[in-house]
Amino acid sequence: MANGLSKILRDRLGLQLLEYDIPEHANSIKYSLGGMTLSAFTVLVLSGILLAQFFVPDPERANRSLHYLVDQVYLGWFLRGIHFWAAEVLTVTMTLHVIRVFFTASYKNPREINWLIGIGLMLLMVTLLFTGTVIKWDQEAYEALAHFLWVAEQIGVFGLPLTEAFAPGVPLLNRIYMAHISLLPIITLLMVGLHLFYVKFHKLSPLPEAQEKSNDMPFTRHMAYLQRAGAGVFLLICLLALTIAPPLGEEPVLGLEVTKPPWQFVWIFALENLWVPSLVIAPPLIILFLAAIPFVDQNKERYWKKRPLAMTVLVGFILLFTCLIIWGKITTMTHSM
Amino acid sequence: MNNFRLASIVFLAFLFLFPSQEIFAHGGGHKPEEKKVEAPASKDSMYSAKKTDSLSDSDGSLDNIFSPTDLFTQDELVSPMPMDDMKMEGSHNEHAEHQQAQVQLSRHERVSSSSKGFGVAVGITLFAGLAFAGLTFTRPGE
C-alpha cells in the first residue's frame, strides 16, 4: 500500500529525480550548515508573513504597532521572538557555512561561481538584517538609519536612490519595509535557487583529506538528514523565543546617538570609532576581498594543513572580527553623526 | 535497537512533559496586570516621534528625513535635500549627552510566563522538541 502510494507519487511528481548520488559526507553537520541556514530562512519567511499582518509600516505607527503586537496580540511576543531568533541563528549558521567552505577550499575551480553567489546571498542577508532593524523604528533603528543615510550621502549619485530625496513625500520607512518584505526576499529566493542549482551541477565538493573517492548515497537520504537538522534549528529558535524576548525600544528621540548596533554590525561601529570614513570604505573592501578569493588563490591544494597562507588569512579574519565586535561592545563612541 | 529508540523517545517525552505541567500552571490564563496599549489608530498625529526641545527648534533636516509627511495627505513637503545638515562632529553632541537619559535603551529581557499565550508557546516548543527527538531516534529515510 505504502509502496504503491510512493510509486504513484514518484511517477506523478518526478520524485525519482531527487535520487541522484551525492557523497556520504554530506550527512554531517559541517556539510549541512547551508541547509540549516535555509531552514532558518524558511522560518524567517513564514514568521515574517504572519508578522506583516500586524505591522503598520508608517513612521508614526510602526513602533507602536510592534508594541501592540508584543503586548496585546495572542502569541504576538512569541511570533516576534521566532522571527528575531531565526535571524540570529541564520547569522551564525551562515557564517559557519562560509568558514567551512573556505576551510575545505570548496570555492576553488570549478565552484567559483557558487562562491560569488554565496557572497551575494550573504550581502542580501546582511541587508535584510539591517532593514529589519530599521523598521522596528526605535532609537536603535533611527540611529542605524542615520548612519546609513550618511553613508548614502557620501557615495553621491549612487546613494541617491537610497535616500528620501529619491522619492519626495514617500516616507523612507515605507520603502525600506517594501524592500524588507518583498524585493530582498524575492532576490534572495532566486539566488538560493541558483546556489542550489550549482551545488547540484558541480556536485558537493569532495573531502579535502580523502585519498580516494568517497562512497555515494542517494540525495533523498541527505534530505532526510536536513529535515532532522531543520527540526533541530526550529527547536533552538523556539527555545530562544520562549525564554528571551528580543529588544524593542520606544519611539526614537530624533537627533540623539546613544545606542549601539546589533552585534552583527558592531564591528563596523568599532571601525567607525577608529576612523569615521571606514563606514564608507570598509564594506566594499571586504566584499571585494571575499569576491577575489577564488581568483587570487590558484593553489590546487584543498587540505587545510597544506594551505598555511589561506589558514592564516582565515584565522586573522576571524580574530579581527571577534576583537572588533568585543571592542565595539565595550567601547564608547567618541563622535556623533 | 528499535526498542531502544522507542524507549528513548518515551523517556524524552516524559522529560519534556513533566516540567511543562508546572509551566502551564503559571502560564497562559494567569495574568496579574495587563498593560493596556492602545491599538494603532488611524487618526494619530503624524509626528509621533518624541522630539527634544532643542531639536524641534532647529530646522534640522535630519527630522525631515524621517518625516511621515505625505504629498497626498499633507500640505507640508519633505525637504528635497534632507541630508544637508547631517555632518560628522568631532565630539559628542552636548545636547545628546544631556538628553541621553530621556532615551530608554532596549535590552533583551526574560519572557514573562504571564505573556499572552505562553502555555501554547510552551506547547509549540515541546512539539518541536518531540519532533526533533523522534527524528533523531527513528532517523526515517537516513
Characteristic key phrases:
heterodimer, A: 337 residues, two-stranded antiparallel ribbon, globular, B: 142 residues, mainly alpha, 5 helices, 44% helix, elongated
Give an account of the 3D structure:
The complex is a heterodimer of chains A (337) and B (142). Chain A has 337 residues and is mostly helical. Chain A contains eleven helices and three strands; from the N terminus they run H-E-H-H-H-H-H-H-E-H-E-H-H-H. Chain A has a two-stranded antiparallel ribbon with strand order 1-2. In chain A, helix 2 (33-52) packs across helix 8 and helix 3 packs across helix 4 (76-103). The longest helix of chain A has 31 residues, at 172-202. Chain A is globular. In chain B, helix 1 (2-26) packs antiparallel against helix 5 (118-138). The longest helix of chain B has 25 residues, at 2-26. Chain B has 142 residues and is mainly α. Chain B has helices at residues 2-26, 53-57, 61-65, 94-99, 118-138, and one strand spanning 109-110. Residues 17-93 of chain B have low confidence and may be disordered. Chain B is built from five helices and one strand, in the order H-H-H-H-E-H. Chain B is 44% helix and 1% strand. The chains are: A mainly alpha (337), B mainly alpha (142). Chains A and B meet through helix 3, helix 4, helix 6, helix 8 and strand 3 of A and helix 3, helix 4, strand 1 and helix 5 of B.
